[in-house]
Each structure stands twice: as structure tokens, then as C-alpha cells.
Amino acid sequence: MKTILWSAIIELIKILLVLVPVLVSVAYLTLAERKILGYMQTRKGPNVVGIYGLLQPLADGVKLFTKETLVPNHVSLVIYFFAPILALTLAFLAWGLLPLGANQVLSDLPIGILFIFAVSSVGVYAILMSGWASNSKYSFMGALRAAAQMISYEVAIGLIVISTVLCSGSLNLTILVQTQIESVWFLLPLWPAATMFMVSALAETNRAPFDLTEGESELVSGYNVEYPAMSFALFFLAEYSHIIFMSFLFTTLFLGGWSSPLQLAPSSIWLCLKASILVFVFLWVRASFPRIRYDQLMQLLWKTYLSTSSSLACVVASLLLLTDGLPPLLCS
């Protein structure tokens, strides 16, 4: 009994060692976003609370979690409160399969990539539930947009990832990184897939220019328009956690994960550095591009990315057969 208890405590500590840094990163990602957008728009951003505004995320968190929760009288209560909890749970669940360094992974599943995309696909149900339970036309329209957007990019992004799976020969993320360490980062031979994956990641995280589910100009705030205080904070944490996760996933799939050209720092630091650069790209894109129209999104994902990603998967598979299991740029 004591052995089982100690094992449970150790596993809980491991989970907290992953989730607590994620929550801190989410808090300061909001500050970084406001600062970067401010400087790109020739203003300072938050600079009052703490030195250079470093305590602003703490002030925002205290405000959100101490604010009175006003529940509209026209909502479906059970689904209304369950939706943000489901969104945050699914956002945190995928972190358990992400290798953060050599032998640093909570659950090293043989089908890790498949499980991650299964969790990502289920995540849209939280948005659908919030839009339907709110009984608001703006929330419901945002939820419908999220569902259509998910169906559009999930097919293409799955075909994009197939290219990396074919090159590594495994659905395990750790083996995929080790394949890149032994040969070359997949960003070089598979740069078209990497580019499409990055754009699809913007669509998956509902970030500009694909933030159609939260279009302030036409939907007020989208699917979370009826959520105040703590409920809104849970959606907020889920969205920004997903942004950081997709940056880490891109690093794992195409940038060699924890591998580094120089062994001057621990592997996890290199992984975080690469992911931080990709997070900056998310913020840079938001400051640079306007929101596209909905028909343009459908045309991009269905007419362009679906055909291109499927063709790329066929080309990679053919080259693997011709080169005895290795893509041409990985052959010595």
C-alpha cells in the first residue's frame, strides 16, 4: 500500500513539474504578447504594475479569479460550466506525451502523435458546447465556425504529419527526435510540410489571421462572449497553453526537438529556446496580418493544403521506396 502511495505521489510531482512551468509560461506569454504588439504599434504596452510591467500577469490573474461570476439566466448550466473545464483539461492532457529532453517524458506512448491529434480533435467539442450552452447567436456562430475550421485543417495537418512519420518510421515522438539527431532536422528535406504545418497551427489555435471564431468585429467575442471571470480565464489558459504546445510540437517534428548543434547547455533549454522563437512568430503574425475572410480560409485549407499535403505524402513515400527507407537528403 505504501509503495502504491509513494508511486502516486511521485507521478503527481512529475505532472506538477510539467504543468506549473506551463501555467507560468502562459501568464508571461500574455505579457510578452502585449509588449511585442505595443512596440510593433509604436507604444509601450503594460509598464505600470511592477518593473517594466513584470507583475501585470499576476494582477490580471487576481482580477479574473476574484471577479464575481455572473451567470446569465438563459444558459444551460451543466454544459455551460463543463465546457471551460473540458477545454483546459484537454489542453493540459497532450503535454504528457511531449518529450522535453532525453528521457524526459511523462508517458512515452508508441502512438504518441496519434494520441495528440485525437485529443486536439476532441478539443473542438468544448468550443461547441460553450457556444450551444450560452444560447447566444454570437456564441453559436463562433462555435459553428470553430467546428468547420477544425474539419478543414485537421485533414490537411494529419497528412502533413504523415510525411514526418514516414521518415522516422514510428508514431513515437521520442524516436522521431532521435531520427533527426542521427541524420538531419526534418525542416530541411520537408520544408514545404513545415511551412504548411505552421500555418495550420495558426488555424488550430484560432490565432490571427485565422481568429474567425473570436472575430470581435462581427461576433463581439465569439464562443466565449457569455463567459465572465474564472470561466473566461479557463478558456484563456487553454488557448495560450495550446499556442505554446503547438510551438513545442513543431520543434519536435521539424527542428530536432531537444537536439542542439553545440553541447553548451542542457537539452531542455535548447528545446525551450526553439519553441520561444516559434511563439514569437505567432505574435509577429498577429501584429502583421489582418483577419482573412471565411471563404478564403476554406479555399486555402480545402483547395490548396489538402491537395498539396496529400501529394507531398505520396512523394515522400515514393522517395523512401526508391532510397531504401531514407529520404534523399538524409542519405549519406
Automatic annotation (TrEMBL):
Record's bilayer topology term: Multi-pass membrane protein
Compartments, as annotated in UniProt: Membrane; Mitochondrion inner membrane
Statement: the UniProt record of this protein carries the keyword Mitochondrion: yes
Highest taxon in the source lineage: Eukaryota
Molecular-function annotations in GO: NADH dehydrogenase (ubiquinone) activity; NADH dehydrogenase activity
NAD among keywords: yes
Name of the featured protein: NADH-ubiquinone oxidoreductase chain 1
